[in-house]
Amino acid sequence: MYVYLGMLRGLESVVAAVLLIVVAVLGVVLVYWLFSGYVGRFIGVEGQAVAAEMFKVESAFLAADGSVKLLIRNIGGAPVNVSTIYVYPVGSLNPLCVKHGINTVISPGTLAAVETTLTCTPSPAPGGSYIIKVVTAKGTEYAYVVTTTSTLAAGGGGGGGVDCSFVSSSGKWFGSPDGSPERGFNELNGWVAAWGPSGGGVRIALMPGITPPDSTGTGASYTVQLDNVQIGTLTVSGGTASVTITEPMPDFMEVVKIWVGGYLVYDGGPLSATIPPGTYPVTASLRVRPDKDVFGNSATLQLSCNGNPVAAITVRVPQPEEWSLKAQVYRHPGSSPPPPPGDSRYVYRGAWSVGAIYFWLNAPGAESDVFSIRGPYFTSAAGNNKAPKWAAYWLSGGSWPNYAVSFTGRLFIPPHWGGLRIGAWYDYSVYVRIPSCSVDTGWSPAATTPRFYSWSISSCVGDVSVELWYYQRTGSSVFVFVVGPPGGNDAYIPTIDGAYRCDNFNWGSGTCGGSWGFVSANSAVPYFVAGGYIPGPSDGGGEPQP
Fold this sequence. Notes:
The protein is built from five helices and 39 strands. It has a seven-stranded mixed sheet with strand order 10-11-12-20-19-14-17, with no helix packed on it. Strands 21, 22, 25, 27, 28, 30 and 37 form a seven-stranded antiparallel sheet that branches. The protein has three domains: about 55-150, Immunoglobulin-like (Sandwich), CATH 2.60.40.10; about 165-320, Immunoglobulin-like (Sandwich); about 320-545, Jelly Rolls (Sandwich). With about 550 residues, the protein is mostly beta strands.
């Protein structure tokens, strides 16, 4: 076949056009290959998966034993497979623990609870801050910061995808009418309330709801009660929940009000509130009946969501000696000399819990000449009330003459002392018993104005039971308890957190030639021991246990 030159020239433009199309197609394919393959390897699987799976962690809980509970909502269009969970200390790139192979699948648009336990070394510290990182099977990650609880919060409310979870709060209170530590302790001489985790719920310990008399002369007073304090947090997710607290009003309580956010769910008895999804503070106002026989009572109220238990709220009245010294208040006949301790003429009125033996309610100028210190468990006032606030409540009446108080508890005496010297400022008389050391001082000489008296004791060391009686006739009140080693000029005023020390104390006059300084509880310091109290680094800085 012959091909004319003119025909070839006509084909050149066609071939060129075809070649250009082929090159263009190859270019598109090459670019697609680069971006979908080679470049994709630099972006990683996670970058590709973000568009395919989307989720968020609505709440997370971490317990000290490594237990983890997550509420995860799938907000994307594809199933999410939760594969791995990491726990990191905040600020660290090294995981504390990791759990692989979880394989919990969450369908689009649903909320699911993921619960597991990780083996962490060291264990998460209660109250510490940690990051929980969730990784899916496709590599998508989500991080959530949590505060560790001592145990995993209870959960479960209501079915239908609704979930309620409770995390307890911790706190302590000293009973001040205005929130000031000094005024609070000086009003009541000790701790009034403490609350904290108990299983998956919360336990609250609260002293009786006495109304101390006015100490200012203004007519103002207050009642010992917790007022709108946060005891926990409730998270409602997956839908609206009917929240209530079951159980009737405990007979030893005078006030019980509990709110979830702004919703009142208990007011002297069960109430119910319909609560939308969200996280809410659980707050309470509580007052125990002012009954001298109320100590040791307890009751549990059950917080429920849609009829399912979520958390137990336990309220109890601790024994006075759990947190400090037990102070029992009596009326007495006003005789001189005083009847012996335990005599039938003493009429029991009530009890309280005090962190030290120090009250001076007569001639405050003279007190400043002697001590010039004010500890948080000390009573010091201008004399408007001539008895400590708790004693004045149990006594009632005008100036409260003719009363006695017995203080019972445990005193730690440093072993290296070998023996003990004890002393007291007082007005009218005091009596000291330490049975394990064969100490029975009898009543000190009577005094109608503040005076100091001391005794020396041999072979008395360690953790010993003490009983100290104070007897008052005239209506004014002074009693300061001092201890020290048998020789030298050291003296200590013990408290439940340690002691105030003077290294130049005159054991004849009861005065300090230098200054008093606080020393925290240790094996070289005398202090009052209480089984339910952890001494703190400062006076008033310890932890009453709920």
